[in-house]
Each structure stands twice: as C-alpha cells, then as structure tokens.
Write a structure and sequence with these properties.
Alpha-Beta Plaits, 4-stranded antiparallel beta sheet, 5-stranded antiparallel beta sheet, 21 helices, alpha+beta, single chain
Length: 651
C-alpha cells in the first residue's frame, strides 16, 4: 500500500570531506543514519586502518546554545514586537542565514552582554527583596523615637521590644499599675491584632515581669545590630530603593538597546542547533584517520537525489545500495495522499506499521472521517472546526505531528458538517428553531437521532458491522499477499459467511437461505479452526470452541453504540445552552449575557466533544478495527534533516 520501500545505504568517503557530505545529507533530509556501534562486524566493510575516536565535539556548542537561548528569552521580554496566536515562524533565506552565521563572534558577545545584564537584574531583585523585607520589619516601629542601639540592658535596668495580642494590652497596663512594679510600657503601634511596644523595667522586678509577660503570650523581638531610629533607617532604605530603581532603569535601557539583535540571535541559535544535529549524526559514523563509513537507510525514490547531491561535492565517495535482509529492523516511511496523510497520526499513536505490515491508513481514514462526524454531529461545529483547523495550518505553518493532528480536526469538521446537515444539528437545536421561525416544518434532511433513537442505534450497529468486516477483509488480503490463501478462506472467509448467514436469518424472505449459509459456515469453522492442533479430537474440539468467537464479533459491533451516545450528548448539551440563552430577553444587558452564554457554552461543547470524539473514534479503530489485522511494531523513519526552533529556512 503506502509503505515506501527502503534500501540499505553504505557510504564511504574521505575524512576531510565528511562535514560537507553530512551537510548535504542533512539538507536533503532523506537518510536515516544507523549507529555504527549497534552493527555487527560482518555488516561493516573491511578497513586497512583501525577505527579512531569519533570526531571531537565543539566543546562550546552546548554552552553557546544555552547562552544564546538565555539571551533570546531575556530580549523577548523587552521586545515591542509581540507574536500573535497565529504568527508563523519567519522565513529566512539561505543567504541571510549564512550572513548571520558569519557574525557569530559579535552575536555571542551580545549574548554575553545579555547574560551579564540578566545577572545584574537578578542581583537587583535580590537586593530589592532584602530592602523591602527590612522595611516591612521596621514599619511597625517608625514611631519609636529611641535609637535601637540604646535599647538593651544596664546594671540596673532592662529594655526590649516585643508584640502582644491587642486584646491583652489593657490587661498588661492594668497589671503594671496595680502591682506598682518599677516598669514602663510604651505602645508604639498596632497592626493586625497585635500591639508593638517597648517595655523597660528595673532588675529588681525582672522575674515578676517576665512571668507576667509569658502568661500574656508576649513575643520578644530582637533588632540587634541596627543603629539609629526606625524612621532614620526607613528613610535610608527608601533612598536605597530609589537608587536601585535608577540603576535598574539603566540596565533595562541597555537591554532594550540589544533587542535589535534578537532576530539575528534566533537565526544563530538555529544555526548552532543544526550543527549540533550534524554532530550527533557524526557520532553514529565509523571514523578512521583518512576515511569514514556511514550506514543507514534511504527510500528507493531518493536514490538518485542522494547521488546527485554528493557527486556535486566530490567524486571520491562510494555509495552502495542493498535490499534489506529478513532480520533487519527496517524503518517505516509512509507516502499517502494529502487527504489520508493527516490520519497517520492516529495510527502512529497506536503503533507504527512495520515494513512487512500493511499500512492501514487508506482503509482507516474514511471510517475515522465518518465516525468522528457522527459523534460530533453538528453542522455549525463542523464549519468552525474546518475553518479554524485550516487557518491554523496555513497561518502557523505547522509541520509534522502538529500539522497532521490539526489536519484530522479540519477534515473531520467536514464530516461533522455533513452529518449535522443530514440530522438537522446546527449549534444544538438552533437550526430547528430557525426553520420553525421561517415556516419550515423541520431542519432535518434524513432523520433526527433524538426523535428516532432506535433507527440511529440500528444505523450505528450496521456501520460498526461494516467496519469490522472490512478489518477482516484486510486480514484476508494480507494472508493472500503472503501466500496463505487457504488461511484467508478458512479464517476470514468462513467467518464472513457465518455473519452474513446470521444476518439473513433476521429477514423472513432470506431466512431459509441464511440458515444454510450459517450452518455450512459453522461446519466449515469446526472443521478448520483447529487445523494447527495435533490429533483429531484436539482439532475437532478446538474448532467447536472457536464458534464462541462469534460473541466477540457481536460484542465489537455493540461497541459502536458509543456513536449514538456521544452524538446525543453533543446535541443535548448544545440544546441546554440554547435554552439558557433564550431565557434572557428584554434589556440590552440581558441580550449581552445571552450572547455570552451562547458563545461560551457552544465553545465548551465543541472542545469537550472534540476530545471525546477523538478518543472514542480512535478507540474504535484500535480495538475493533486494528485488532482484526494490524500488528505494528515498526519504527518511524527519522532522517538527518534540518530542524529549527525559531525560523523556517528557505532555499
């Protein structure tokens, strides 16, 4: 089907030309390089010299990437150009790309400046936090006129600061007056149910006073090391903050001045990233003092492109292609039509097809398309899905898995629209309301699942049975392709006949024919399903027990009732939001709230049902469909290619 045939590649070239060759391979993006350390000696060509250590890595490349990335993150915070939701990566020509890389030293110097300025900002932040903590600590004491260094002890007196619950301060004051102890209490301030105070007393009353303070849960506060009054210190800290903000403003101005190199730093980052990818590829290559050996995989359609690209660089290169061996782990490259390609993401979430497998995407895609649409079941939702998905793909210039996933949503928006039109679903029951308002009997073209649930349930089961039978048909195709014709007849053909026979039994006009077909198929299954067993009794009983598998098939079919359940839930939730919105009428603000309920409600319904439809449609593919024929177990073809983070490289 759509699995591309692969060839084993052996490439031998001169060490001095290795970098240019790897660069050409990376630009072509069609060669998966195997790790030479994972290959046996019999898979490597004989060399006259001993293999030498792999090429030395640029020791600074990781440091450079970190440095440039940190600079980019800093400058983006101060850039006036803000990226929108649908802002694509900027496209950069190869000429501009190379010109920027020539200025690598200057740009790295700018990145160093960014890191230095970032360190200064971090230091300012730490200083500011410490100063503000000191201000918070001293603020309750700003009315205290006594310098902090004067608070302490002498030979005959003691003084200290502390806090007490405001509810207990009167009790403390009354006690000091009644007991006539040699002490003085000064209330400085009150804050959050606490009273901040200074207490001084004669040493002769110390034990009595301390016992009373403990009973009132007085908390002593130490501000040792401070000199001057609280007000003097607060003024100093505020001046320090002002000076700090002035310095920080100068640093921010310097950062904003460096924003002009932001775009070039992004280009440099991607250039370093490409070099890193190339280096990692070189680590999988066998190196000698004068030559290198590269082993890998390439699709048959890219043979000539590789030869042309490399021979433009040098004639001193050996390129050899071989057919895979039976035990080779061949990477899988899929080549499907544009309408099928997005659905590859669904298959890959389950398992990647192997080279000896069958690509299920062309068969699976139409069913996924239809099942998803039935589950969503709303024409209005389908239009939004298709439009938003298409805009995202085009504006964001999505690639890879993200492009395929959004492509699935956009395509399934079409099937959602089709089913919604047939069943009359337009933003819940809004279509029906509009149809009635303009004098039409109904917005339904075929039938409404809500009004005819049994018909909908029967339709779901019929669609599910077709899906299961197609899965069995694919398995029969695989058996015939591999030369197991009788296995296809016995293991799929007879089951197909049994199911058809049982279905014909349900119709009075075909019941007689159905009975003979079902009985004949059942006898055939009993006689053939145990053919791998030894002994006639084992063969017979194994074949007889195999008839129980019919329950599994019909159990699979029953699973398709989820089509009805999800489609119904989508319609009902949409209807509920329409009812809530329609209840708000009259004043202009009621209309605003009604519109808000309608929009937010239906957006919520779309999102929650998108998730449900994706999960349950995928589940039907994985269990009921793939379970009939698909084994998977392959690994995706991952060629050395140019992967960038910030730019799209053209030419």
């Amino acid at each position: 089907m759509a699995i591309v045939r692969m060839k084993k590649l052996t490439l031998i070239g001169l060490e001095e030309e290795k970098n240019a060759i790897l660069k050409a391979i990376q630009k072509l993006g069609s060669v998966e390089i195997q790790d030479i350390s994972e290959l046996g000696q019999d898979e490597l060509p004989s060399l006259e010299t001993e293999p030498k250590s792999l090429q030395a890595k640029d020791d600074n490349i990781d440091e450079k990437l970190y440095k440039v990335k940190s600079a980019i993150d800093l400058l983006e915070n101060y850039s006036q150009v803000k990226k929108g939701m649908f802002t694509p990566k900027p496209q950069v020509s190869l000429e501009e790309f190379n010109n920027v890389l020539k200025r690598q030293a200057d740009l790295l110097s700018s990145a160093d400046d960014c890191l230095r300025l970032q360190d200064m900002l971090n230091e300012f932040s730490s200083k500011r936090a410490r100063i503000r903590a000191s201000i918070d600590q001293l603020s309750p004491w700003q009315n205290l006129t006594m310098p902090f260094e004067a608070i302490g002890q002498t030979n005959t007196s003691r003084a200290f600061l502390g806090t007490i619950q405001s509810s207990s301060i009167n009790e403390l004051q009354d006690w000091l007056e009644e007991e006539e102890v040699l002490a003085d209490l000064e209330i400085v301030s009150e804050y959050r149910d606490h009273t901040y105070c200074l207490i001084a007393y004669h040493v002769s009353s110390e034990e009595e006073i301390l016992d009373r303070l403990r009973g009132l849960e007085f908390e002593r506060i130490s501000l040792s090391g401070l000199k001057g009054t609280a007000r003097q210190l607060l003024d100093k800290y505020n001046k320090d903050l002002e000076a700090l903000e002035k310095e920080e403003g100068q640093v921010v101005a310097a950062i904003k001045e460096l924003v002009k190199v932001l775009d070039d730093l992004k280009i440099l980052y991607d250039g370093l990233l490409i070099d890193q990818q190339k280096y990692e590829a070189s680590q999988r290559i066998l190196n000698t003092g004068r030559a290198f050996v590269l082993k890998g995989w390439i699709s048959i359609k890219d043979h000539e492109k590789l030869k042309k690209a490399l021979y433009e660089i040098t004639d001193a290169v050996l390129i050899q292609f071989e057919d895979p061996d039976e035990d080779d782990k061949i990477p899988t490259l899929l080549d499907n039509p544009p309408l099928v390609e997005p659905f590859e993401v669904v298959t890959n979430l389950y398992s990647t097809p192997s080279q000896r497998d069958v690509d299920p995407n062309k068969v699976m895609a139409p069913f996924y398309f239809a099942l998803f649409g039935i589950m969503m079941g709303d024409a209005g939702y389908g239009i939004l899905m298709a439009i938003v998905g298409t805009i995202m793909i085009r504006k964001l210039k999505l690639k890879g898995t993200a492009k395929k996933l959004v492509g699935v949503i956009a395509l399934c928006g079409v099937s959602t629209f089709i089913w919604g039109v047939l069943s009359g679903g337009w933003f819940g029951d809004l279509g029906e309301r509009i149809a009635n308002a303009i004098g039409l009997e109904t917005a339904v073209i075929w039938f409404s699942p809500m009004e005819e649930p049994l018909l909908m349930l029967g339709f779901c089961f019929a669609f599910g049975l077709l899906h299961v039978l197609v899965g069995m048909g694919v398995k029969a195709y695989m058996d015939i392709r591999d030369g197991y014709i009788w296995d296809a007849v016995f293991d799929q053909g007879l089951w197909f006949l049994l199911i058809v026979g049982l279905l014909l039994l349900l119709l009075p006009t075909t019941a007689a024919v159905g009975k003979y077909i079902a009985i004949g198929a059942a006898i055939g299954l009993v006689l053939t399903q145990g053919r791998a067993k030894k002994g006639i009794f084992s063969k017979f009983f194994s074949g007889l027990l195999s008839l129980y598998n019919i329950t599994g098939i019909f159990s699979d079919v029953l699973s398709y009732s989820r089509l009805f359940a999800l489609g119904l839930s989508s319609a009902i939730i949409g209807m509920v939001f329409n009812i809530l919105a329609s209840m708000l009428t009259g004043a202009w603000y009621s209309i605003v709230f009604a519109v808000a309920i309608f929009v937010v409600g239906h957006v919520f319904n779309i999102l929650i049902n998108l998730l449900g439809a994706f999960v349950h449609t995928s589940r039907l593919q994985y269990i009921e469909f793939f379970g009939k024929f698909f084994e998977g177990g392959g690994h995706t073809f991952t060629p050395l290619t140019i992967k960038t983070k910030y730019i799209d490289l053209t030419n």
